[in-house]
């Protein structure tokens, strides 16, 4: 499956001779990108509000939560329904190659004894040229980690995009 960005970069010359320049459409795309950024910021802030929540296997509240319930709750706050298990969440959305990972994407890991069986999930909150930061519920509670830390880099399986700009 090939990942194609939809309307990420749009170049229109602002002269009337360009048949592809449509001022109304251009500003609609800008408006959509603005609202998409707001949605993403909302989800990330919602996720950060869970920081330091203790881990509890099978838990789904701020008294104790596991990784898949954490992600499910974050997206549910924006009326997006996801499955309860991380292995099932990994089947939703669109596959994203590592070099195209963006804020809001979900990262899936195999942390158990089975090397390819997905059992952990986190959400990307920041991307820079050196690293990808994600928030997740680990056995230490809800915290922020880096994908390129040795442990997470070796456990990484795939990334999926649930939300995308149109």
From TrEMBL:
Stored InterPro entries: Murein_DD/LD_carboxypeptidase (IPR052062), NLP_P60_dom (IPR000064), Papain-like_cys_pep_sf (IPR038765)
Domain NlpC/P60: 37-163
Record carries keyword NAD: no
Coiled-coil regions listed: none
Entry keyword set: Hydrolase, Protease, Signal, Thiol protease
SUPFAM superfamilies named among the record's database cross-references: Cysteine proteinases
Superkingdom classification of source: Bacteria
PANTHER family cross-referenced by the UniProt entry: ENDOPEPTIDASE NLPC-RELATED, MUREIN DD-ENDOPEPTIDASE MEPS/MUREIN LD-CARBOXYPEPTIDASE
Family that this chain belongs to: Belongs to the peptidase C40 family.
Protein known as: NlpC/P60 family protein
């Amino acid at each position: 499956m090939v990942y194609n960005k939809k309307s990420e970069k749009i170049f229109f010359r602002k002269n009337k001779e360009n048949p592809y320049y449509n001022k109304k459409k251009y500003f609609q795309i800008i408006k959509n990108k603005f609202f998409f950024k707001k949605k993403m910021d909302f989800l990330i802030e919602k996720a950060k509000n869970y920081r330091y929540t203790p881990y509890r296997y099978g838990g789904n509240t701020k008294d104790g939560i596991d990784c898949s319930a954490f992600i499910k709750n974050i997206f549910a706050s924006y009326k997006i329904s996801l499955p309860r298990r991380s292995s099932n969440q990994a089947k939703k959305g669109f596959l994203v190659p590592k070099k195209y990972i963006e804020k809001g994407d979900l990262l899936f890991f195999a942390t158990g004894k089975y090397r390819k069986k997905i059992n952990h999930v986190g959400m990307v909150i920041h991307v820079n040229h050196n690293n990808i930061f994600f928030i997740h519920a680990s056995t230490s509670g809800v915290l922020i980690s880096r994908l390129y830390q040795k442990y997470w880099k070796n456990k990484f399986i795939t990334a999926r995009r649930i939300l995308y700009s149109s």
